[in-house]
Amino acid sequence: MATDIDHRVDDSRSPGDDGPRASDDTSRSAAPWSGVDGTRAVRGALGTAGFLVGWYLASLTQPAFVLPSPVAVGETFIEELVSGEMATALGQSVRHWVPGTVTGTLLGVGSGIVLGWNRTLDDVTAPIVRLLRPVPPLALIGFAIAWFGINHAGAAFIIAIGAFWINFYAAYGAVEGVSEDVLDVGRTLGVRSDSDMLRSIVVPAASPGILTGIRTGLGRCWMLVVASEIFGVPGVGRRILRASNNLLVDEVIAYILVLSLMYLIVDIAFRAAQRRVLVWRA
């Protein structure tokens, strides 16, 4: 299939137009964690303190079921943590967050790479992709219940759908945006077949964009935890929905903080891994 190497060349589709601007994002995002920046740390602390003070003052003008104070939220957070309820809910959410995120990411990245590289498959599947892309994961809850039941598998399905599209378009755009000059270098070095070109040239060149999509998907999947538990699956999202129905806003905010903290931990870990993978760009 050596003759297929040039099939992504098309003057009507400018390479890189649709691909995420991963290089700038990666270089900027790595800086805060590469060392201690005293000035930025102080500014962040001041901003956080100002937000908490403003929140506290606003809470004085509202009843607790509308806007609880930061102190009340902190007390509820500690109570839920000490009682073990928070750890239980988080463990239940992780049981569908992990398989949903992993499955959606792998399928999305794989499909994006294949369709971003193969013009024929891209043309064949384009109508289906454009038809399904606007469908929100929440609209598929009925399918999740019918196919998997009200359990962790159904919730994982909802999360996987959300992860798939983010990673699909990130990988698709990154592969499609690989410069023709890079491909020419590969041909000069003796790379001829599609499989060798993908493995040795295209995927490494597209890896910044692919990794940016994965990172974005990780955050989106934590957002989808609430949506995936809306039909009765236990977890953090279910606790948020139940507390909302009972106007326990302090508990709602406490469990929202759990999701935020989990995303922060995952994001920091992924950024560290991303810098190691992209060390060749330094």
Tell me the structural class.
mainly alpha
Shape: globular
Q: Which runs of at least 5 residues are low in confidence (pLDDT < 50)? A: 1-34
Strand coverage percent? under 5%
Rounded mean pLDDT is 83
Kindly describe this structure.
This protein has a single domain (25-281), classed as MetI-like fold, CATH 1.10.3720. It is 75% helix and 0% strand. It has helices at residues 22-34, 38-59, 70-83, 85-117, 119-132, 141-148, 152-176, 180-188, 194-228, 236-245, 249-277. Helix 3 crosses helix 11 (249-277), helix 8 crosses helix 9 and helix 9 packs antiparallel against helix 11. The longest helix is centred in the C-terminal third of the chain and has 35 residues, at 194-228. The relative contact order is 0.15. The model is unreliable at 1-34 (pLDDT under 50).
Notable characteristics:
single chain; 282 residues; mainly alpha; MetI-like fold; 75% helix; disordered N terminus
Task: Sum this structure up briefly.
Helices cover 75% and strands 0% of the residues.
Question: Secondary-structure map with pairings?
Answer:
Blueprint: H1 22-34, H2 38-59, H3 70-83, H4 85-117, H5 119-132, H6 141-148, H7 152-176, H8 180-188, H9 194-228, H10 236-245, H11 249-277
